[in-house]
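Changelog excerpt

This revision adds worked examples to the README so contributors can see how folded entries look when concatenated. The first example is reproduced verbatim below.
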Amino acid sequence: MDWLEPLSQTFPARALILSPTLYLLVNAAHIMAIGVLFGAILSLDLRILGLARMLPLAAAATYLSRLAATGLGLAMLTGLGLFSVRPGEYAANPAFLAKLALIALGLINILAVHLTPAWRATTRGAEPTKVLRVGAAISILIWGGAIIAGRWIGFI
């Protein structure tokens, strides 16, 4: 993974390497972004699965999807910063690779669900279909797995 090493010489990477405080803040921001991402996804998926029926799904779906997208963007930005500190090490870490694979699966699941007529109907007030419920259950497993893989990185 030598081709990734120049990333560790960029200005943002050097700043993170040289400042433990900056690294701490970016790491904390990454954790908060993941909390926003997973919190929104889990809340939406649980609502699709039938919990909190008093919460209108059409409004929740729109709001929580946008919130999750914001969390994803922030997690990717801060994650790239953290990755840049030791790119070769991370790229060779099986847990990091598993995390990336699970994130990719999660994004594919989101696209698959959001491109269905059932999703569009749900955002207009229809009850979620069985396909959406299966997608929600899969989503919880995938994103939960990504979090576990992310935590596992530091232990390998």
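The second example, added in the same revision:
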Amino acid sequence: MKKILVVDDQYGIRVLLCEILQKDGYKMHEAANGVQALKIVDQENPDLVLLDMKIPGMDGLEILKRIKEDNPQVEVIMMTAYGELNLINEAMSLGAITHFAKPFDIDDIREVIKNSLAVS
């Protein structure tokens, strides 16, 4: 069973993604901040991380860098608010596979996750 970690400081988004993706047959983990996220990546070794760009404290780019340093095999998909294009380019250069703008279409996310995990 593939494991997915959702990292977002917004509780509602974490719950929504975890509920829907669990129904798709993934084992879900969630983190509200970078420290929790990195701990879960170390302990659970997820196949994919859905990572919000704007998180208080350690931001999404910093979390992405740290995940990729120790776990280059983990796929990361960024979630961003509208208009953070410069950050997206940086995230892609750091190894993110793609990104979604919020508010997102949940079916788009499910499709990309399915495709990403089918390849890995």
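Reviewer comment on example two: The chain has five helices and five strands. The two ends are 13 Å apart (CA to CA).
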